[in-house]
Write a structure and sequence with these properties.
This protein is α+β, with helices and mostly antiparallel strands. It contains 15 helices and 53 strands. The strands form 13 sheets. It has a 9-stranded antiparallel sheet with strand order 26-27-30-31-42-37-36-33-34.
Length: about 950
Amino acid sequence: MADAPQDIPADLLTRNFELHVICNSHLDREWTENFQFTRMLTVKFLDSLLAIMKQVPEYQFLLDSQTVPLEDYLEIRPENEPVLREYIRGKRLWVGPWYTAADCTCIFGESIVRNLLIGHQMARDFGHVMKVGYTPFGFGQVSQLPQIYAGFGIDVIWFYRGVSEREVPGVCFRWTGADGTEAFCSRANRYNFYFGVVRPLAKGGGVMERDYDYASQQVPVHFCDDRRTLEHATLAATKSADDLSNVRHLVIELLKDNTRYFPGSVISFMNGMDTSMPTMLDDRVVKEAQAVLPDNWRVFHSNLPDFVRAFRDEVERERIDVPMVYGERRDAGAPAPDTTMLGDIILSRPIQKRRNAVAEIGLQRHAEPLATLAWLLGGEYPKAFLLKAWKDLCKCHAHDTIAGAGIDQIEKDLLNRLDQVINISESLLQLSIGDVLKRVDTSDLDGTDIPLVVFNPSARARSEIVHATVDLPDAFGFEELELRDADSGEPVEFAVTRWQAGGERVIRDPHDAPTSFYCAHVDIDFVANDVPPMGYCTFVIRQAPPKGHRKTLLTGPTAMENEHLRVIVAADGTLEVIDKGSGHAYAGLNRFRDRGDTGHAWTSRAPTRDSVVHSSGHALRVCVKHDSPLRAQLKVEQSMRLPASAVANDDHTHTRRSDDLVDLPVTSYITLTRESRSVDIRTVIDNRAKDHMLQVLFPTGCDATVSASDTAFDVVSRGILRSDDDSYAQTLAPTHPCLRFVHVSDGKSGLGVASSGVRGYQVTEDADRAIALTLLRAFEVCMCTVSYRWERRPDQALSQAPGRHEIEYTVIPHAIDWRGLVAQEAERLNVPMLIVQTDRHDGSLPKAMSFLAIEPAVLELSALKKAEDRDTLVVRLYNPTDGSQDARLTLFRDVASARLVTLEEQPVDGGNLEVAGKSVSFNVGPKKIVTLELT
């Protein structure tokens, strides 16, 4: 080779570079196009990839750390499964560790674990799983990701969103997660070689050159009818220049740039981007670079594990000092109006966020645990149905999908998939509860007694006032009723709130035609005290004489009260809640605030000239909706007048809210039960406006400096007050993720707000320290399909969140510490107890029992399931606190053996646990996730 050192800086010429060319593509399953169109591109993509691999033995490819593209491809090309297996087994096609490329900020920790578990199982079945935590797709990183990855034997993580250059100037750093687990990390550019070398050779431009030459004769295809005029054009005859004469110069310039960030001589050259296709040019460029670069510069086809191994070895061998970052990774970078983290996705498309929460809870906390209990009692474990539900759920968690960052068709498809998850879960739940119920002995009840069985899905006992609609058969002749504990015979407090005669109930018999019986539909509230952990208790409805005086929780037309709380609807529609134990009063709760939003899916942005609208001062109507001795409910109706939309100049540099106004009806149902320490609120909104964000505010009045909310396997504390150099200093207010609750306290008083399906909150920096839950965010689809340019899609109407929204949340006053009441109320709201009506029948189980209990109560149950590949029981729990917990798990039957296993369900060295009859004792360290296997 004729060396030309004059074009290479002397300090680079003598270095022995290892330049790992890692061919890859970021395979969004759906984003700017719908899934089926994207799948067609994926099929073409993999067809091309397999053809190249056949011709070039040294060619390797990173399939974006996912396995779902294999399924999507093989549904269309099943004949190519053997060759895929060959290349994966031969470590040329790298797949896993994920099933889908999830964003973890919007989903429960168990969903993250199952995504990785399914990804591992699929990749291993195909021949090999890539053990690198490749996560460039996350919009911020959850605090427990190092521990989660470690549970799968992965201690290297590759990501960039959420860690900024001010924290990590180079590409190498270490990350200590919430529990102390440490990971070696890289935030290297994921398409540097593609945009620095390959694209300039093929298309004549880098990342910024995106102007299409209409004279290039590549046959653009664009439908011009009204229905599809905003759709993208496609090229039917795309061309590539493929002139390699400039390879040397381009590689040298790329290397010069990258040595500013890489600490040594091992450098990743990532060849691929979101929509790139593998071509023979990839191999030609590598071979040409080998020929024209200095002999001491090795440039070669490589893969992520080999690069990581060499990179890490160099850092450790050379004792290169790298920075350490800690906990949740949501640093937005240098103060600026825009961030690279794109963290406001937690607010986008709220309908799908709420539906996803329903699907997650239904599968993880109801269907799968009950199916597991039925299996333990001798039933069949529905593994195939559960796997189908988990896969459909994980498909909804792909980052652009759950983020709501794509076109409307993605939301439609996601909601349909979530419906399938919910349908499978509900069906399994009904069958599994039937398997349990048929074993509960109620044979000693009287012939006209009607048993009600209350199931508790939590691993701790619960006492609540619950609501049921029961069917009283006409043949039994009920005129009045009473409710008793079926075990003790003691009366149970209840209240009938509706009695509707003339009803009928259909009974489905899998062995016969459906039958039915005539009945009265009766609504009752009743006290379900001490329902056993992960168990049930039985109540019985009987004939009874008429009742006497009827009490009420109402103290006036706009007020209600129980032993603990006094709730008053103020003249402006907000709530005042007085904690009677402490005497502390919280005023102005449940106030609605609306502002304009001219941002996009990733970033919320206020208009240049904004107007903020509060619910106070608008028309108001308060009425009693429900009144019983056990439950009272007030209905508060308001109608806010909002600007109809945003208005912008031609280039959108100046924006404002429109002068045209529309009504935004907001109705809140405020519920207080007799023994509750919190106030339940169900708010129904009819959204008729565009380009706006609606929040509900709860002033805490606390002199607090931090807020706390639960995230995946953790409760994270975040600062409220911002300094001038804070990464969010120039934003309106930082929006933080939450899964089930938010808590603010100054150690003297506090307020918690638990919610269902609300994924983002703020805390105001004024004296109110108000918790602001974002109930809906309406925005115009504006996509960066072409990098650094924005494509507006006003035809995508669902991003504006039109129509009806129903959101549930509960306010928990005087909650100084989230560990007790706040966490319990979040569990009650999100994981309701199940009430089932049955009949008198023989059985082997008692009328009340616990299948599984976990102590202490601060430990949270995450999973109860059958092991993946053996007939053992798996229980997963976690400790969200900063203190170590001595734990005990009690099963309903003797435990033969117990051991700790990883999240991948592999045995932990020295993980055998002490067993005493039905109980297992163990320790759970601060912020630790623990998985137990029991036989």
